[in-house]
């Protein structure tokens, strides 16, 4: 018997795992028929999920936490048992703004700390407060941009204007001069660079080497009432993720995503960052960045509770939520490693033994405790060298200079 | 009650506005979601904001509602969360509504219901228009294919059509598809 599942998504490269599960037969093998619902705003994706029009959604991890905490319209307990990807964001700025930064874009990307300080100087030279597009208040993009700007003493709430706009409108907005730059998931940064109006200034992976990005989010009650369907979906996605990470499959994957039903952008543009290369300025040589986006290796889909707590710590840091032990516990509980373990117990994927870890503590690939198989964690440093200990959030937050 | 409709499609907004005016609402403004629409909205201080659920600008609007005082305390979509039928109908119709806090649900509900009806009517209109367009295009293709068959195989118009239809049935295709294939083949072979 085939089970139908409706899953909402936004047109971005990191819908890859869902698209591959549907187009390459992984869902079908588990007796699932996926109806992937293309959506143009995070608000509508959220509403479709919260009001039960879809069973699951390709969601910004911080948005899943925010909806659960009642910070984004109708509160609803969401559950994220599977990460759809790690990394994949790029900050691009209009050419005339970027002219005040290091002349070689590749050098900027390699030195995020130096570039943050150059950025601070560039703000003073700009004709107004720079307007930077972010895809959502509760996006990994916005949190990472804030983190990066603040490292150079820039107050993201005072020294720049963060303007929310959907990824698909970013390129148009930079052309119209409505924004001076933006941070978004691919292929939108590459599209803006290709259009000749913008240059790469920073990439997510150089800010946090293994940055939490999209999750597969469910309504928690639905997840609890449908364990068997959930498990089948997670198994299908885990296999699809392995397929997506295989370099030989990247061209097919880019062709799938290029279809208007998914991203609707040229497949060579999509392929560029999928295969780990960036062209930081139109006409420049490509820069290799093999960890630009990860789907499966290093147990990428595993929802580490410490990553939900890192999101919570940033929401507290930027005064988006009042800290409390209860709120912290609810934020942590959005990520569901227990469901991931139950669904994939029978698979041959490496299975982390713990549910929390220090974030930002791995400098070189590290073998860690795994129930089966070898689990190698890649380097996950923050560019400023800070380490997030989920047991000591207050100390972590005290370590940042006061912003106001 | 001041109602602002945020919409890019002039037609849909007009359809909705007319309906609201007929129902006795007269303080209605249409704002396209471009440029500084957020600032305009702020000055208008609306009680209800209606917007197409499919509009990519919803995130921008919500951010504005979060940081500005355009609506004292906006509620997304629905005043009464228990009214699931209403919520489902609104999402199906593609309506999203933001309502100022304190506005009683008896006052808002008729506006929402009307918006749902009008959005549905609009999408029906679009579908019918689309179907009419397709039908016209199909007829042109079929006429051309018929004349090719009539010229090259000396068939009557009726027989030419019968041949197209039986071919379509045998191949499980639409007549227009078979006609198009015939035209393409004929063009390739240099026919008329």
From TrEMBL, chain B:
One of its GO terms (biological process) is phosphorelay signal transduction system. GO terms for molecular function: RNA binding. Residues 122-183 form the ANTAR domain. InterPro entries: ANTAR, CheY-like_superfamily, Sig_transdc_resp-reg_antiterm, Sig_transdc_resp-reg_receiver, WH-like_DNA-bd_sf. The keyword Phosphoprotein applies. Residues 2-116 form the Response regulatory domain. PANTHER family: PTHR43367, TWO-COMPONENT RESPONSE REGULATOR-LIKE APRR6-RELATED. This is Response regulator receiver (CheY-like) and ANTAR domain protein. It comes from Novosphingobium resinovorum.
């Amino acid at each position: 018997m085939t089970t139908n599942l409706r899953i909402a998504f936004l047109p971005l490269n990191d819908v890859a795992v869902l698209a591959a599960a549907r187009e390459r037969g992984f869902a079908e093998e588990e007796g699932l028929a996926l109806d992937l619902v293309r959506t143009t705003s995070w608000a509508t994706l959220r509403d479709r999920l919260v009001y039960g029009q879809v069973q699951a959604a390709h969601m910004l991890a911080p948005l899943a936490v925010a909806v659960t905490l009642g910070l984004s319209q109708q509160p609803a307990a969401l559950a994220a048992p599977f990460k759809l990807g790690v990394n994949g964001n790029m900050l691009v700025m209009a050419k005339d703004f970027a002219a005040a930064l290091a002349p070689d874009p590749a050098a900027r990307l390699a030195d995020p700390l130096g570039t943050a300080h150059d950025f601070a100087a560039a703000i003073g030279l700009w004709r107004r407060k720079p307007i930077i597009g972010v895809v959502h208040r509760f996006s990994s993009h916005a949190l990472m941009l804030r983190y990066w700007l603040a490292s150079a003493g820039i107050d993201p709430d005072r020294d720049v204007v963060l303007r929310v706009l959907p990824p698909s409108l970013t390129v148009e907005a930079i052309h119209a001069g409505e924004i001076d730059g933006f941070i978004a998931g691919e292929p939108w940064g590459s599209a803006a660079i290709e259009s000749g109006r913008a240059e790469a200034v920073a990439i997510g992976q150089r800010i946090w080497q293994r940055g939490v990005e999209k999750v597969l989010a469910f309504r928690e009650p639905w997840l609890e009432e449908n364990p068997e369907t959930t498990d089948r979906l997670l198994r299908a996605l885990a296999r699809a993720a392995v397929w997506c990470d295989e370099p030989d499959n990247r061209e097919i994957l880019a062709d799938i995503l290029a279809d208007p039903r998914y991203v609707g952008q040229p497949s060579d543009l999509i392929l560029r960052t999928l295969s780990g290369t960036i062209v930081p300025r139109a006409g420049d040589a490509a820069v290799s960045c093999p960890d630009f986006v990860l789907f499966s290796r290093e147990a990428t889909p595993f929802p580490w509770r410490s990553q939900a707590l890192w999101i919570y710590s940033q929401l507290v840091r930027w005064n988006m939520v009042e800290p409390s032990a209860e709120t912290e516990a609810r934020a942590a509980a959005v990520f569901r490693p227990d469901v991931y373990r139950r669904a994939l117990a029978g698979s041959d994927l490496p299975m982390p033994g713990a549910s929390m870890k220090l974030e930002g503590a791995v400098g070189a690939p590290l073998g860690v405790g795994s129930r089966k198989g070898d689990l190698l964690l890649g380097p996950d440093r923050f560019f400023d060298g800070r380490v997030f200990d989920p047991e000591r959030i207050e100390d972590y937050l005290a370590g940042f200079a006061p912003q106001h | 009650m001041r109602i602002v409709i945020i919409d890019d499609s002039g037609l849909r907004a007009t359809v909705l506005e007319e309906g609201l005016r007929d129902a006795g609402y007269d303080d209605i403004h249409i704002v396209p979601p471009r440029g500084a629409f957020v600032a305009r909205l702020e000055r208008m201080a609306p009680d209800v904001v209606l917007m197409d659920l499919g509009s990519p600008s919803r995130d921008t609007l919500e951010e504005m509602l979060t940081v500005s005082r355009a609506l004292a305390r906006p509620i997304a979509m629905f005043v009464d969360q228990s009214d699931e039928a209403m919520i489902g109908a609104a999402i199906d119709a593609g309506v999203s509504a933001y309502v100022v806090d304190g506005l009683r649900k008896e006052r808002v509900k008729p506006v929402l219901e009307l918006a749902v009806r009008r959005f549905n009517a609009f999408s029906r209109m679009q579908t019918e228009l689309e179907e009419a367009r397709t039908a016209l295009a199909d007829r042109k293709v079929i006429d051309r294919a018929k004349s090719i068959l009539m010229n090259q195989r000396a068939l009557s118009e009726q027989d030419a059509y019968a041949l197209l239809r039986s071919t379509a049935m045998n191949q499980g295709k639409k007549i227009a598809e078979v006609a198009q294939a015939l035209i393409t083949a004929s063009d390739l072979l240099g026919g008329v």
